[in-house]
C-alpha cells in the first residue's frame, strides 16, 4: 500500500505528491503534529480545519477516507509503515527549517523500516536552489531572480487520482490503522476532522474566509475574469480590493500553483491590450516574489529570528509596550495605519500596501523591532506564511534581502493620501472617522488638538511626531551601520 502524507497540500487536484507514488492504491493521511500546533493560531487553524473537512469530503465522494492522526509524524508514520505494510510514502516538500528537520527525522525512520519515500517539490514552480546566479549562489535581489523565474518552463497540471487509485477504507484497513495508532500512548486518531475546541484553540475573533479547493477555484476564476486586468494599475489602492485573495489558499495548498499559473496564462492570451497583458504579468510577478522568499527561507532558515542583513552594530530598537499596544489596537492616530490594524483584527487579512505601511510605521516611526510585528501578524493573519511574512517584515525594516533602504521612510500621511485619496478604506475600518472629510483625515497629524476633537472626539491623537521619528530612525540605522 502507498501512503500520501498531506501537509500544506490540502487538495486532490494538481497535486504532484499524490501522483508520485507507485501504481498501488493510495491511503491519504493528515497528522496533527503537537510541535506545529504549539505555533499555530486560531485564524489559521479555523481555515485549516475547514479545508480538511472539504478535503475529506472529496475523498469520501471517491469511497476513500482521509486518515486523521494526532502525534509526532515520525511515530505515526513508522507505526503505520509496520502495521499496514506500506511500500511507499510520499509528501510535498515544505521549506522552513522546522519542517526540514521534521522531514529528515521521518526519512531516517522510514529508511530503517525499509519503506521507500518520495518527497516532491509541489508548492512552487521552481524549487529553492533551482534558480541561482551564474555562480550557483542564491539570488539576493528579486529582479534578477524574477527574470529567470519568468523565462523557465512551468510544469503541466498533473491528473487527479480517481476512485480506483485510492484505498477503500474497509473494516480490515480500519483495524490495522487502529492497532498502529492505539498501541502508542502519545498517538491518537479522529474519526472526523476535530473542532478548534477539541484541539485546544479558541474561536477566532475575526471572520475567517472559507477554505477548500472549490472556494479557491471560484476566487481564481472570478479574479481572472476581470480584476487581473486592472491589477497593475489598482493593486496599491486598498479601497479597490482588487487582488486575488488567494494567499491563505496558496499557504495551505487548497489550490495548486500550476492551476493558478495556467489560469493567468489563459487570461493573458485573452487580454485585449498590451496594458492588460502587462497587468497579468504584474500578478505573475507576485507569484515569483512568493518563490523568491521561499528560496530565502530555505537558504537562510535563521531569518525567522535573525536579520537577513548584518549591520556592524546591533540595531537599538526601542521597547515600548504602550506604543506597541496602540499599534496592535489600531489606536495610533495615523488613520491609514489604524485602518490596516483594524482590518487585521476583523478579517485576519490586510491589504498588501497597508501591510507595508503598518510595518514601516512600527519599525521606523515607533522604532520597535520587526520581530514584534512579525509575531503579531503570525497570530492574527489567516494567510501567515513564514517565508512571505518574514520577507515582508524584513523588507520594511531595512534588514532583509532587497530591502527598503534605511533612509527611505514611508510617510504614513502621504501614503494614505496617495493610495486612499477619498479615505474610503480608512472609513471602512475606522468608525470614529465616518463623517470626517478626507482632507481632514489626511492632515490629522497637523491639526490642533481642539480641531481634531471637533471633527472626531473619540479618535486618537497621533502618538508620535512622524518628522521627528524619521530623523531618529535614520540615526538609529546610521549607528547600526557604524557611520560617524
Ligand atoms: C509586512 C508584510 C507581511 C506579509 N505577510 C504575508 C504572509 O504572512 N503571507 C503571505 O502570503 N503574504 C504576506 N505578505 C505579502 C502580501 O501582502 C500578501 O501575499 C497579499 O496581500 C495577499 O493578498 P492576495 O492573495 O490578494 O495577493 P495577490 O496580490 O493577489 O497576490 C497573489 C499571491 O502572490 C503572493 N504574493 C503577493 N505579494 C507577495 C509578496 N509581497 N511577497 C510574497 N508573496 C506575495 C501571495 O501568495 C498572494 O496570494 C506580507 C507582506 C508584508 C509587507
Automatic annotation (TrEMBL):
BP GO annotations: nucleobase-containing compound metabolic process; response to stress
Cofactor note: Binds 1 FAD per subunit.
Protein name: Cryptochrome/photolyase family protein
Cofactor: FAD
Enzyme class: lyase
UniProt site positions, description: Electron transfer via tryptophanyl radical: 317, 370, 393
Organism: Halovenus salina
Biological classification of the source: Archaea, Methanobacteriati, Methanobacteriota, Stenosarchaea group, Halobacteria
EC numbers, comma separated: 4.1.99.3
Family indicated by similarity: Belongs to the DNA photolyase family.
UniProt keyword list: Chromophore, FAD, Flavoprotein, Lyase
Chain ranges of the Photolyase/cryptochrome alpha/beta domain: 1-125
Keyword Cytoplasm set for record: no
Binding site for FAD: 231, 243-247, 283, 286-293, 383-385
InterPro entries the record matches: Crypto/Photolyase_FAD-like_sf, Crypto/Photolyase_N_sf, Cryptochr/Photolyase_FAD-bd, Cryptochrome/DNA_photolyase_1, DNA_photolyase_1_CS_C, DNA_photolyase_N, Rossmann-like_a/b/a_fold
GO MF assignments: deoxyribodipyrimidine photo-lyase activity
